[in-house]
Amino acid sequence: MTVQIITIDGPSGSGKGTLAAKLAAHYQFHLLDSGALYRLLGLSLHHHDLLDLMDIKLPECVQIATNLDIQFVSSETGVQVYLDGEDVSQTIRTERVGEFASKVAAIPELRMAMVSRQHAFAQAPGLVADGRDMATSIFPQAQAKIYLTASAESRAQRRVKQLQGMGLDVKINDILANIIARDKRDMERTVAPLKPADDAYIIDSSNLNIDEVFQLMTTYVDQQLAN
User: Which biological process annotations from GO are given for this protein (predicted)?
Assistant: First the structure.
């Protein structure tokens, strides 16, 4: 049986996570937040004091990636994420851990160690996969490929609002600088750089709200899945 796959790629802060969850609920598909996997790996390497030693202790880092103890538990309030038995749902969404993830994702050997984990999410009836290289590297066979982007400034404003909603004190200039730096690192990495697939449907959400983007996505996905 062919598993139907929808991919949503794009830069940090473009709204991929929120819209991927909405699509998964709409189509009753499984959900893969690949960014969370890299955040979890980055956090684990930080806990092991290896984040700044990845170049000289790479085999040890790969071993940790291969045996990462993670759990995603659905609840009425969303998805709880556990690392080594500890609830890190809030921790992995901080800017600091986002930086960890971006550093980890730039290491080819660590990306390879995470591939099989991501492939395992592709189960019937279907999957919505959210990330940066879902269509170009992990699921090139996907029936529907979406690339969601937005200006760095609009993404920074959204991120500030999100973090302030979590009770964090943040400054937009710091967030904007982090976004620009992460975009550069993600787009210039040698393995699976951030870019749209050749056959991706590109949406710029800079001046659109979530409902408007969701409508564009479902119209496109319905057409693709019907083919």
Answer: nucleobase-containing small molecule interconversion; pyrimidine nucleotide metabolic process
Walk me through the domains of the chain, giving residue ranges and CATH numbers: 1-29+125-221 (3.40.50.300), 35-123 (3.40.50.300)
pLDDT of residue 76: 46
Give 148-164 pLDDT, tens digit per residue: 999 999 999 988 888 88
The model's pLDDT over 100-146, given as tens digits with 9 standing for 90+, comes to 988 898 898 998 899 988 998 899 999 999 999 999 999 999 999 99
Spatial distance between the Cα atoms of 95 and 102, rounded to a whole number of angstroms = 11
User: Residue 78 gets which letter from DSSP?
Assistant: E
Q: Which helix (H) or strand (E) holds 216?
A: helix 210-226
137 assigned binding-site residue: no
Cα 63 to chain centroid, rounded: 22
Alpha carbon of residue 147 to chain centroid: 12
Q: Is 108 annotated as a binding residue?
A: no
Among 106, 102, 130, 120, CA closest to 190: 106
15 is in an annotated binding site: yes
Residue 22, marked binder: no
Pull the structure tokens for residue 35.
């960014």
